[in-house]
Structure formats: C-alpha cells, structure tokens
Amino acid sequence: MASAASRFAILGEHVRREFFMKAFSAGLTNIGRKRDNNEDTFYVDDKIGLYIVADGMGGHRAGEVASRTVVSSVRDYMDAFSSSEAAQRLGTGEVSPACAAVCHSIELANRVVHQLSQDQGSYKGMGSTAAVAFLHGDTLVTANVGDSRIYLVRQGKIEQLTQDHTLLAEQMRKNPSFDPHFSTSPMKHILMRAVGIQESVQADAYEMQPLSGDIVLMCSDGLTDMLSDHDVLQAILQGGTLDETCRRLVTLANERGGIDNITVVLIQFEKEEKGLLQKLFRSR
Amino acid sequence: MARIILKFKELVLKNFSLQDGGKTIGRAPGNDVVLENLLVSGHHARIDQAGGDYILTDLQSKNGTYVNGTRITTAKLKHGDQILVGKHTLVFELDAAQVSTADKDMVEATMFVQSAGVASGLLPVQTVPGVETAAGPTPVEPPGILSYLSGGKGEHELTKKLVKMGKGEEADIQIGGFLTPKVAATISKRPTGYHITPMTGRVKVKVNGTPVEGSQRLEEFDTIEIGAVVFQFYFGN
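YS: structure for the whole thing
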C-alpha cells in the first residue's frame, strides 16, 4: 500500500506538464565575391546551446587566426561552464551566472588574441568581432563586441538584439536625428570595440526568455551590408528548413554584390514536453 | 604626414601634425587645438585616425562644424578639405605620397579607431578629470521601475537584465496567488527597450488592459496586470 501511495504521489506531483526549451540550428559561411579569403568563423552546438559568429580583421591570414581563436576560446570556456555546477551558481546582481560566463569567455578570448598579436609580428594589430548566443535552461544570453549582429524574429517581426560598436552606430545613438543617409559610409566600418585589439574589452550582454517558434539570426556584416532588416526578415519568413534559409540569405547577399565574407547562423526554439524519465530525475 | 593648418581669414596661425593620432578642437583649455572664440564650443569637434583615414566628428557643438561649406556630423577628410569651426578655418593636408595611395580604390575594410586621446567606449572616461568623452557621453538610459498600483506596496527597480515575476523562489518579484506559476512573466532589457513576455497561459498578463501575445515592448506609464497585482511602468532618473 505504501509503495502504491508514494508512486501516486510522484505521479501527482508531475501531472502538471513540464516543458523545456530546445534549440536547433544551421550555419553557413561564404567567402563572398570580392575577397580572396574568408576571415569569418562560426560555431554551432545544440547540445550545450552555444552559437558563435566571429569576423576577423588583420593583414595576410591574421584575420582568420583572430576569428578562429575567438571561437575556440569562447567554446572552451563555455564548455567548462556547462559542465561545472559550481560555476553555474556564480552570478552578479545584474546578470545571471550564464550571462556572466558569456562575458568572461569574450574577455578571455580578447586576452588570447591580444597576446598572440603581441607575440608574433605577422599577427600585429589583428582583431575580431564576437557575437555569442547561449541557451541556458530557458534563458537566452546574447552578447557582442563589434559589428556582427544578433536578431530575433518573433511573430513576423524582426528586432536587433545587439548594438553595433561602430562609429556610425555610436553617432546615431548619441544623436537620434543623425541622418545615416550614406549606407556606404566609411564610419560603418570603423569599430569602436573589437576583440584582441586592446588589453581588455567589454562585451554588451542581454538576457531574454525565448518563446516556442522564435528564430534567432546571427551574422557578420557581409550579410547586413547587403541586405536591410526588412530583406532579411522576408527571406526568413519564406520558410523551409534552416539550412535552406541560410543558403537563401547568403545567395541574396552575393547577388547584391557580396563585398565581404558572409556568415549566417540560424537558431530555432521549440518547447518540448519533458519525458517521464526527465521528470522523475529532474535532469534539466 | 597628415596635418591641419589653422587659419583665421587668410592668415596662417599654426600647423598641427596628426602623426601621433587624432586631435580635439574646442575652446576649453584641455583641447589639442584651442580656439579662443565665443562661437566655438568647449569641446567642439575631434579628428580621429582610423587605419589610413582621418575622421572628423562634430561633438554636438552649438554652432556646428562645416567641411567645404557643408555642415557635418561626421566626415572622412580628404586632402585639401576646409574645416570651418566658428570663424577659424582648418585645412586638412596629406603628404604627396599619401595623396596618391588615398586615390586608390577604397576597400570596404574594417578598421579600428585610434582615437584622439579619449575614445568613447574604450576607456573609462570618468577617470580622466576635466575631459569629456570626445564625442560626449553616451546618454545613460534611466532604469525602468515598476510601481505597485494594487496588490503590493512600493516599487521595484529593474536593474537586472532579465527580471522574473512569479511565485517561485527564482522570481525576482514575488507574485502570490493560487494559480500564479513559478514564473508568470519576464521583463528583459534589450537595446530596443524593456520587453515583457508572459510565460504560461494560465495567468493572463495584460498591458493597459490588453492580454499580451508573445512579447511586448513597454512604454512609459503602461500598466501591467498579472493576476491580482497591477504595476505601473516608468523610467527613473
């Protein structure tokens, strides 16, 4: 009798349906039509919920080295965070532990790239952007340095979740009446912040709760220099698989000139009901 | 080497080399180029070096900065450009060698700014006494505040990037009630503002009396209703 009662208790407690947020993704990078090499690097990992886009800069092959170093440093740090329960309790007043970790991973990447650029003459002055998205539990952390962007597509609308760290964007923030009539302005390509250029860097980070059906787009400026937010939204709303949408976006950017490397990462969020085993063992 | 030549009418007053990076221009004594004239703002304009280019930025001066007669906010300088600040003219010049390289196709390359002394966003500007950020401080957004209209007393400042509201331990703002879930809604602070997102359908979250579908950006003085609790949203100082 006792065992039957306790079994009922377990079932009773979990009769309430529990859900968790699941992400799946696709990514694509393309050299574009004008450049000789691809300095963009991206990374997608649905298992730990980590997504990175980095757009490198620097002479010879240094831009590639910078963007790859950013990706590997951030990935290694976040891997360690995901497997450490202690780390997951370290938050500050303003941000969750996951958000703090993402910021730290970018700061770490900055130190590694900066050190490399100091040690090797051919890497002098190299740097990279960093756009990082991290799904932890049901919270999505987004962070960036530079002009690689993260967008949220929700219910047919598009919203930029990052602020570009360019001279142009900074002017527009300070002076909302400032007219960005020159979409080809040189100020658009002048970064006020980048990973690896200086001894330290601060990432801007945000947290939000993704909803089922949300799509998050991460991209290098090779996409957004060629396509307006509206163009991007239309291409995503056309539907199809995430892979198809990535290809569609890259093709469009190339058709419009492809002046820079183009990188696109798409993440789709779906709610899934926790299985009975997961409920009993509370594994998520 | 790039330089600016300071002129008043046709009289050449001084040469400034841009070899060691950019220059700040204004009436205040801390500037690299100090212009004693009431038409000149304290921190009027600055020139930054970015890669091989020089970028002129007006620092929201009262009387404006002009390049070859056109008022500008920011402009990339070319050899021979005439910059008008108050009644003074600054002529931007490059060496012959630089002029020829500047003529070649401008590649759409990304560059990193090497700024005149203080680069906004790069250095903790507050620690440089007496110097404003060259481009003026980025306006600090006032924090959002939720003030109880009913169901509680006082107010909550939305300092966290993601504020959870509900009955659970993890909720930053506790909302009681039999049907209230652990997290009934979240408010996330994003570049576009504060957005409220209801988490489950069991308790309706209303903004100005209308149930929120998906998520909604909050405007000042919106009322937010979650179960029996009603807040008003506004911006602090």
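YS: worth flagging: Residues 205 and 211 of chain B are 6 Å apart (CA to CA).
IM: good catch. Also Chain B touches chain A through 40 residues (CB under 8 Å).
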